[in-house]
Amino acid sequence: MPPLSPNGATTRIVALAGATGLVGRAILEGLLADASVTAVHALGRRAPGVAHPKLIPHVVDFAALPPLPPLDEVYLALGTTIKAAGSRATFRVVDFDANLAVASAARAHRAGLVSAMGADAKSRIFYNRVKGEIEDALTQLPFDGLVIARPSLLVGNREALGQPVRPAEKAVTVVSRFLGPLVPANYRPINAAEVARALLARVPTARGRVVLLSGDMQA
Q: Which of 10, 33, 75, 211 is 20 to 30 A from 197, comparing alpha carbons?
């Protein structure tokens, strides 16, 4: 039986932050296709660019979020790179501050986070350290279940989302076609759709803190 929603019915009301990103768009597609999900509140700095009867877009300032309705689940797919952000401070505003703000405002039973391989709050690498810090911060919130996805190099159709193609992704993808069986599963490139599917499968019934590595998420 599907979990009960805040209104007591066997349906789900969810929120998604980062629906315009590579993993976020795949999560959105999965939620909209799920008959048990009756409403998807999509929070972002711009609208998702798609229309659907159960999609409720919210163009927001993550530093001043409006009140959110009671939710069953919240999916956190906000993320950038230091290069795209332009500075470490701006990167942290997106990957830490914005994700934490949504999680804190969500009042959800369960949460799913798109993190990264190597996330560690004690890491000497700034990127990994921020990813680890947001994981630790979310662990302190009163979720019934928290699922953390730590993908390796993400691949997918960035052009379709209006994002620049990353040469490193293309190069690694080509190499992995030949060396794939020799590379440990947790280090192989992973398609964004696989990360989305793993979160959509685990979050609705999660209990406690669950960490998914790339090897766990690949079909």
A: 10
Q: Which residues contact 173 (CB under 8 A, 6 or more apart)?
A: 155, 189
Q: Which CATH superfamily is domain 12-214 in?
A: NAD(P)-binding Rossmann-like Domain (3.40.50.720)
Contact indicator for 119, 136 with CB cutoff of 8 Å: no
User: Residue for token digits 């315009």?
Assistant: 20
- What distance lies between CA 116 and its chain's CA centroid? 10
Q: What are phi and psi of 58, to 5 degrees?
A: -130, 110
**pLDDT at res. 176:** 56
Structure tokens at 111: 């949460």
Task: Return the domain boundaries, the chain.
Answer: 12-214
